[in-house]
Structures are given as C-alpha cells and as structure tokens.
Specification:
mainly alpha, Membrane-bound Lytic Murein Transglycosylase D, Chain A, two-stranded antiparallel ribbon, 16 helices, 6 strands
C-alpha cells in the first residue's frame, strides 16, 4: 500500500465535491452514513454496554447490513476472485476462523467511524489478517500493510521497540479514521479504496483531470495501475463471499464470546512470558495478538494495554491485582535520562494441570524440555496434577 500526503488546496477539493453529485446504483455509492458520532481516540475502549450488544448480534448479519458497495453479479472479475478465494472451501473456512477475532474487532471499529462494512475485510486482501512484521525500511507492515511514512501521518509510533502498525487496536482505529476522511472528501467508497492503495493525492489528481467516475462500471474507469484496480476487485470479492456463502459452498464460522478481542489495561511493563502466565495462555499466542512490541517485553510506556481474548482477560486482571504492581514491573525498564536501575530477578513456577505434558509447558514458557527437567531434577516425562515446577528466573 502506497500513499502520499494530502496537499490539494481546499478550494479545489470543495469544487470537486460540488460537481460530483451522481445517482447511486446497486447500493455501491450511498450518501455518507449519518448517525455515528465522531469516534473516541484510538486507545479508548468502547463502552461495555455497546460491546455486549454487538456480541449478541450475529456478526455476519451485522457485517452484511453495513455493506455499501457492489454485490456479486455487478462485475465478472468480482466473481472470478470470489471463486479463487473459495476454491478450497475447507482451507478458506480455516483461515477465516483463525482471523475471526481480528475481523470482528475491525467491524466494530468500522461501525464507530461510519465506514462501509466491506473495509472490515480489507486485511483479508492485504495480509489475510496476519500481523506481518518487517525489519526493512520503506516496507509495509501489520495486518493493514501500512507504510512507515503513512504511519507517521496517522500518528502511529514506529521505532526499534514498538511498531504501532502491528497494534491491532491502534492501527485499526487509524485506518478507519483515514477511510472516513477519504469518503468525506471523495464521496465514493470505491475511491476511498483506490486512495488507500494508490495514495490520496494520486487519486485526487486523477479526479481533477478526468472528473468523478460514474456508477458503472463498478470498478471505476480511472487510469490507475492494475494493482489498484485489482485491490478494489478483491475487496468486493471477499465481501461477495460473505454476502452469499452458500453460493461458494462455504460455511461462515461462529465467534465464541471468549475469543472476542478486548483491551486490557497494562499498568506496568512486564515480560511477555509473565503476561502470558497471568493470562493463562501460550506466550506465542499472546505475542501474535500483541506483535507491536518488538522483543520479549510488553512496554507500558509505548502502549497502555494488551489485546487479549475475552476468555483470558479476567484471569489477567485478577493475576495482576493479586500480585500487585511490584511483580509486574518491567525487569529491564530504564529510568530517566542518565539514570540506571538495578536488575531484579523474578522467580517463576507453574502448577501442573491434568493432562499437561513437559513439552506443552516448555513451549508455553519459551524454555526447553531439557531445562525443565534439569531445574526440577526430573528423570522421566511423567507429571502429576498439582505438581509445582520451577521455571527459572526472569532476568
């Protein structure tokens, strides 16, 4: 995704808007949605009542109801890509099931900003909802595939310790805010997608030269690169599958309440291993959901929350409150300018649950089986429920 800074004069923009009132066909270009209030800042958690009401609604019906662009049969290329996505129905369903918590979160944020529901599916086109990281400069990252320069204009922090492009909540709010602005200026969700892929200034320049596109063809007939045209086609194709899953022999998975993503306050920095232990979940899964933290520390100075499945959020809060702030401090936190802080060593243990194996416990805490056996003087692999295992120090 490439973008450029906005610098078209406001007067030119208003002139374009005044000349671009066109009729709408097939529901693809409705008026800008009315009703949603201007959104809260990116780090604000939606009210609990609103989140609970959304959870009770069927996600897919809610998503379809927010679609605002073309349906399946308006363009052959849309059907071509829809069939391409679903040529292996089981694989498609598995990928969608894995991405469902992030998709549901994106849909919720899109609704807050009054953005067309199709854009909740945009990470499918960009990354299949994977938090793609990169160590290369000038490369996109995150499930939204945001360029570094664009991240800066969005207000997302990107440095060696933290990459806001991989922060599910911050990046999603930033993208939806930007798409809302694109539509407010361009008055066409199709052009908002073009701007997302090719850059807003590029699309505004094309409109100034060629005028606003008509409702048909569905893929706007502007001289953009093929990759930009295909980007919109792919977005409408995945929306097509969600509209009519039976047409493609797929079933849409359900999202259990305990898998829904929530933001949990992070009062103090801590290691990812300790955060995972507090939440009662594998450390690799916690890192996947919080990939913005580069390294093995959840840095509270970079972000004041962790993204957790709802089923693990209460356990995390309880564990933190029971152990107090001293046990959650970052073991490698740095003090103010020029100051140093002595290292502290925090001792870890694990109580064996029924059915757990040494391999599972070692994988969970990012240690080896050999280390576990040496620390606990074990000569075999048999474990007993209730047995306390030493995990070593966090240093």
């Amino acid at each position: 995704m490439k973008r450029q800074l906005r610098n078209l004069p406001l007067a030119s923009l208003l002139l374009l808007a005044a000349c671009s009132t066109l009729p709408s066909q097939h529901g693809q270009r409705p008026p800008a949605p009315k009703g949603p209030a201007r959104p809260a800042p990116a780090t604000t958690t939606p009210p609990a009542a609103a989140a609970s009401a959304a959870a009770r609604q069927d996600l897919w019906d809610q998503l379809r109801g927010s679609f605002a662009m073309a349906d399946c049969d308006t363009e052959p290329a849309i059907m071509k890509w829809a069939r391409q996505y679903t040529r292996d129905p089981q694989r498609f369903q598995g990928t969608l099931r894995q991405a469902l918590p992030e998709l549901a979160y994106a849909q919720e944020v899109a609704a807050q900003y009054g953005v067309a529901g199709e854009f909740a599916l945009l990470p499918w086109v960009e990354s299949r909802f994977q938090p793609i990281a990169t160590t290369l400069r000038r490369r996109p990252a995150g499930m939204w595939q945001i360029m570094p320069a664009t991240a800066r204009t969005m207000g997302l922090r990107v440095d060696n310790r933290y990459d806001g492009r991989l922060d599910i909540s911050a990046s999603t709010h930033a993208v939806m805010k930007m798409l809302r602005q694109y539509h407010d200026q361009l008055h066409d969700w199709r052009l908002a997608d073009y701007a997302y892929n090719a850059g807003e200034f590029s699309i505004r320049r094309l409109i100034a030269r060629h005028g606003m596109p008509a409702d048909l063809p569905v893929i706007p007939d502007l001289p953009v690169h093929n990759v930009t045209r295909e980007h919109l086609t792919k977005l409408l194709a995945i929306a097509c599958v969600i509209r009519e899953p039976g047409r493609f022999n797929v079933s849409l998975p359900e999202l259990n309440e305990d898998r829904q993503l929530v933001k949990v306050h992070l009062a103090h920095s801590m290691s990812m291993a300790r955060a995972a232990d507090h939440a009662g979940m594998p450390v690799d899964k916690l890192k996947h959901l919080n990939a913005a933290y580069r390294g093995n520390q959840a840095d509270a100075s970079a972000s004041s929350y962790l993204m957790l499945p709802a089923g693990h959020a209460a356990q995390f809060r309880d564990a933190v409150s029971q152990q107090g702030p001293a046990s959650t401090m970052d073991d490698h936190a740095t003090a103010g300018a020029g100051a140093t802080r002595a290292r502290r060593h925090l001792h870890r243990t694990h109580v064996v649950r029924r059915g757990e194996s040494l391999w599972q416990i070692a994988h969970r805490y990012s240690v080896t089986v050999s280390q576990l056996r040496d620390l606990n003087h074990l000569h075999g692999h048999a474990l007993k429920p209730g047995q306390v295992l030493q995990l070593g120090d966090i240093d």
